[in-house]
Write a structure and sequence with these properties.
alpha+beta
Length: 398
């Protein structure tokens, strides 16, 4: 066989290797070790805890619930830390654009770090378009860069959240991590307050209705007493019945005396006339008293159309008393239900507990230059190898 010779495709493969592997590695090494600024990382770890406090009976018995974590709250908090809302809140307290733009983003300036510094234009665009150095960018640009500098790790099984915040100074990294923890705690407290309000809203509405019903019943009973000038119709009826009984006894005694007079005297005896007059007066008075009571009239018709009759007043008083009693019972039940729901809502409180407070880094750990350079070399080599294999496959198909 003839000896192997260096052909054109071999030269192209070596040229591609130099362009696709050697050149990116050299450029990356130069940038990482010459222009890339050091970044400090502040660590923080926290979780959402749900504290369930036992009732008074449980506490007396020595039984209390153990606090636990809520996975749903952890998922909510994970999304909140990556949201533009949190970025906007923290940006109002500390100018994130200024903090993350300190290395500068101009390629022409050798002291700037346009790759890792905040650049609302993007790295690729800033290579060819000078742009405005004073352009702060939109909140979406800041949120996108936030996701590069703030890393959140969530464990749904344990409910733990780990946070890594990068900045170009140690103090600023710790400050941002502390603000993230404070805003997250505020958000969890707000969710806990909303949950308590939802748990007690229905019971509160029922209590308000019971209070209004009780006020209406008491006002109606007060108006009745003012109109009738009677505090308790039952007591007044008892007194009125005593008067009626006394009149009936007097009538019976007078009728007996009249009969005796008729048997022992003449028909025109003045005493008989006087006794008959007394009988009529007593009967008229009994009729009037019976009408007041509303228990019957001389015509034999039960009841009375007079609204001031004691029977009608007593019926109205009993109806108002029943309404008042029902309103009082409803109020007691609604108040007990509200107190129970409020106590149940207060038994379960959520709060943010930090198991690792935001740390103050002492040494810069980013960028990891060797790791980054190794990743560039690996992917460059893979891209070059795949490209060469694809080219040879196409050549063999011809």
């Amino acid at each position: 066989m003839p000896p192997a010779q260096l052909k054109r495709r071999h030269k192209l493969a070596f040229l591609a290797f130099g362009v696709m592997v050697i050149l990116p590695i050299v450029a990356s090494a130069w940038y990482l070790f010459d222009r890339a600024h050091d970044r400090y990382v502040s660590y923080a770890g926290f979780s959402v805890r749900t504290e369930e406090i036992g009732s008074a009976f449980e506490l007396l018995g020595g039984v209390a619930e153990i606090s636990g974590s809520s996975s749903s709250d952890t998922d909510i908090l994970y999304k909140f830390i990556q949201s533009p809302e949190l970025v906007n809140r923290i940006n109002k307290q500390i100018d994130l654009r200024e903090v993350w733009s300190k290395p500068g983003r101009k390629w022409a300036n050798g002291d700037h770090d346009p790759v890792f510094a905040y650049n609302p234009q993007g790295i690729a665009k800033s290579l060819f378009v000078p742009g405005d150095a004073n352009n702060p960018g939109y909140i979406e640009d800041l949120t996108k860069y936030w996701q590069r500098m703030v890393t959140v790790y969530s464990d749904s099984g344990t409910g733990l959240i780990d946070l890594e915040v990068q900045a170009f100074t140690a103090d600023e990294a710790q400050t941002i991590a502390r603000l993230v923890y404070e805003e997250s705690s505020t958000m969890i407290n707000r969710l806990s307050a909303i949950a308590r309000d939802d748990a007690t809203r229905y019971a509160r509405e029922e209590l308000d209705q019971a209070v209004d019903r009780l006020k209406t019943a008491r006002e109606a009973l007060t108006r009745f007493r003012n109109r009738s000038q009677i505090v308790d119709p039952s007591a007044s009826i008892q007194g009125q019945m005593g008067i009626l009984t006394s009149l009936q006894q007097q009538l019976a005694q007078t009728l007996i005396d009249l009969d005796i007079l008729r048997m022992t005297s003449q028909a025109n005896d003045p005493r008989s006339t006087q006794a008959e007059r007394r009988v009529r007066v007593i009967e008229d008075r009994i009729e009037q008293e019976r009408k007041k009571l509303g228990i019957g009239t001389s015509t034999g018709v039960e009841g009375s159309g007079d609204e001031n009759a004691f029977a009608n007043l007593l019926g109205e008083f009993e109806r108002l008393s029943v309404d008042l009693q029902f309103a009082e019972e409803s109020y007691k039940s609604a108040l007990a239900a509200y107190d129970a729901s409020l106590a149940e809502a207060q038994r379960q409180s959520r709060y943010l507990a930090a198991h690792v407070n935001p740390t103050l880094p002492e040494a810069a750990t980013r960028p990891d230059r060797l790791l980054s350079l190794g990743m560039v070399a690996l992917f460059s080599l893979l891209i070059w190898a795949i490209s060469v294999l694809a080219a040879y496959a196409l050549r063999d198909r011809r």
